[in-house]
Design brief:
It is built from ten helices and 45 strands. The protein is α+β, with helices and mostly antiparallel strands. It folds into five domains: 103 residues, Copper amine oxidase-like, N-terminal domain (Copper Amine Oxidase, Chain A, domain 1, 2-Layer Sandwich), CATH 3.30.457.10; 62 residues, SH3 type barrels (Roll); 70 residues, Roll (SH3 type barrels), CATH 2.30.30.40; 104 residues, Immunoglobulin-like (Sandwich), CATH 2.60.40.3500; 188 residues, Aminopeptidase (3-Layer(aba) Sandwich), CATH 3.40.630.40. Helix 5 crosses helix 10 and helix 7 packs antiparallel against helix 10.
């Protein structure tokens, strides 16, 4: 469980009420600390119930909450409930778990584990408690796909592991039926409500509930009492009457807009590349409404199934006809504030492009081509206008790859080459000129009173850090031609919380960005996160892809600039996000409650890096 120290709605009450709330939180923290100060033995005296798919388990050793707040559970009874094989290797103090093609190895007292031979680091080490191996419950959720919930009212750990089912789709029978975050009506409020007749893909089942795939990539639970199975017809053979190929490969064809390729099957994963409109990506897997694709770099990623079209891939049959295309060189020259890259060939050619991050690269792949350039002429130093170098290679026997290594985010436009001899790519900075951006340094004194935000253990006030970063960012944006407005430029602001969003709406801003520092009751928690809000089925939901793209662009660039833990892009119903009409995001730069990160947040050099990281994220957003 992650306990957030405060709501990003802000503490909007009078000052005295705010301090009363803070004092109550502090008392809660002291009480919890006292309860668990005795370590596992004393913590175990507090009864914690353990449920698996709704059934109460009775382990010989009960779960407990350790002094760091981690819920420790007996691994064997849970994994055996999941029908996994559990082996204890006493000589190595090691537990070995096999389930669903995964092999997880953990050692007592060691935070390092191995999953299918890959090293991973846990935040809490397994322990032997009363002769039983206890592990942090999140290990189960993160590595075996279970859903783990903590029910504070009954001190219960509830583990949900959907079982396979022959039902592939269900249709809603009730007039309006709730979809919930867990398989019980206790999970309230619901994620959303669906109408009668809605058909939903089924991912699994627990007694009385189906786990279904939502159109926005999220998962949810729907009561089996209010749906009926839908018969799924067998795959079509394409209408030709012949037999279907047994081993057909597929490509995912991107639609009319670029698509972000993500690190995992869900909208909150970080962006690893951008696939341009019309590009074709080799399909290697599918999961819960997401398609796993392999880029020509060898990197794999995920795209929403709703944003691509699958078609059979016929390999060499799809090469350019004739196979006579030769790439004979690259001519590079500065042009204005950009760089002209003329990829010279014996004829005009089609291409596929990719945008890769960390480090920044633009990639052009030319199918059906042979590289006719001597090895010593395949790398061209540039070092101007954001382009470090141009590289060429025979990437596959029938594909030539041209790569522009970048020092910043750039975009490109393409035009025909003279006499059809290749193509010309003009690479330039995404223009922020005349882009209207509203920056909101979180907290400060508004008409309702003074709001310092979170306070670090060393006395650092969040409002001061937020303002320092925002002012630095404003200077950087104005230097690139953007029109920048701030909700406050000093201690005071004329705008209450919701009015900050209304101010951006009145200006007709292109982007709204709220800058904050995070906080937690646990001083060890740290990292960087970015929040967006665009619930499907609402007016804001029409901006969902844009808001997620903005959040991912800022998050990836900011993490690269600061080097802190990447918490990811999250969703939350914050006032400034739900009330803005344009794409908006709320950045949590670092945890002011973490003593090490508090020191960084006070450092002007760190504040400058944060501003530069956000600037780079905005460049990425406007370059796509």
């Amino acid at each position: 469980m992650v306990v957030r120290g405060r709501s990003r709605e802000g503490c909007r009450r009078p000052v005295g009420s705010c301090w009363n709330a803070v004092f109550r939180w502090y008392l809660v923290f002291l009480v919890v600390a006292c309860i668990f100060a005795g370590g596992p033995a004393s913590a175990a005296s507090r009864t914690v119930k353990l449920y698996f798919n709704g059934t109460l388990l009775n382990p010989a050793v009960a779960p407990y909450v350790d002094p760091t707040g981690r819920t420790m559970v007996p691994i064997r009874i849970i994994m055996e409930s999941m029908k996994a094989q559990v082996d204890w290797i006493g000589g190595e103090q090691k537990v070995r778990i096999q389930h669903g093609g995964k092999v997880l190895e953990m050692w007592i007292g060691n935070k390092t584990a191995r999953l299918n031979g890959r090293t991973l680091v846990m935040d809490t080490a397994p322990v032997l408690h009363q002769g039983t191996t206890m592990v942090p419950v999140r290990v189960i959720a993160e590595n075996f796909g279970a859903q783990v919930d903590w029910e504070a009212s009954s001190s219960s750990v509830r583990i949900w592991m959907p079982e396979p089912t022959s039902v592939q789709q269900v249709r809603v029978r009730g007039s309006y039926v709730n979809i919930r975050s867990g398989p019980s009506t206790a999970y309230d409020p619901p994620l959303l409500t669906v109408k009668q007749g809605t058909v939903l893909p089924v991912l699994g089942k627990v007694p009385g509930w189906y786990l279904v795939q939502l159109s926005d990539g999220r998962r949810g639970w729907i009561s089996a009492d209010w749906v009926e199975p839908v018969a799924v017809p067998p795959p079509s053979d394409g209408g030709g009457g012949g037999q279907k190929e047994e081993a057909t490969s597929y490509v995912a064809v991107v639609g009319s807009k670029p698509v972000a390729v993500l690190a995992g099957p869900g909208p909150v994963y970080r962006e690893v590349a951008t696939a341009p409109a019309g590009s074709q990506l080799r399909v290697v897997g599918e999961e819960q409404g997401w398609i796993q694709v392999r880029l020509d770099t060898g990197l794999t990623g995920w795209v929403p199934a709703t944003l691509v079209t699958l078609k059979p891939w016929k390999g060499d049959q799809e090469k350019d006809e004739g196979g006579s295309l030769r790439i004979t060189g690259v001519q590079v020259k500065p042009l204005g504030e950009g760089v002209q890259v003329w990829v010279q060939g014996t004829q005009a050619f089609s291409y596929q492009s990719l945008r890769l991050y960390n480090p920044e690269r633009l990639v052009w792949d030319i199918p059906g081509a042979v590289l006719d350039v001597p090895p010593d002429g395949r790398e061209i130093p540039v070092g101007i206008n954001g382009v470090a170098r141009i590289r060429m290679s025979q990437f596959t026997p029938d594909t030539v790859r041209v790569v522009a290594d970048l020092t910043t985010s750039l975009k490109f436009v393409v035009q025909e080459a003279p006499e059809g001899k290749g193509r010309i790519f003009f690479v330039e900075k995404p223009s922020l000129k005349n882009v209207v951006i509203v920056l909101d340094p979180g907290h400060g004194t508004d008409p309702d009173g003074r709001d310092p935000g979170a306070v670090g253990p060393g006395g650092t006030l969040e409002k001061d850090v937020n303002l320092a970063i925002a002012l630095k960012l404003a200077d950087l944006l104005r230097a690139e031609g953007a029109k920048v407005y701030l909700t406050r430029e000093g201690e005071t602001t004329p705008y209450r919380l919701a009015e900050r969003a209304f101010y951006a709406n009145e200006l007709g801003a292109d982007v709204f960005l709220s800058i904050h520092c995070n906080a937690s009751l646990n001083p060890e928690v740290g990292g960087t996160s970015t929040y967006v809000y665009a619930p499907p089925g609402t007016e804001l939901g029409q901006q969902r892809e844009e808001r997620l793209r903005l959040g991912r662009s800022i998050q990836s660039a900011l993490v690269a600039a600061l080097g802190l833990r990447d918490i990811g892009v999250l969703e939350a119903n914050f006032s400034v996000l739900r009330n803005t009409k344009m794409p908006s995001a709320l950045v949590e730069v670092a945890f002011i409650s973490n003593p090490q990160e508090e020191k960084l947040l006070r450092d002007p050099a760190f504040q400058a890096r944060a501003a530069e990281g956000i600037l780079e994220g905005l460049r990425r957003y406007f370059s796509s």
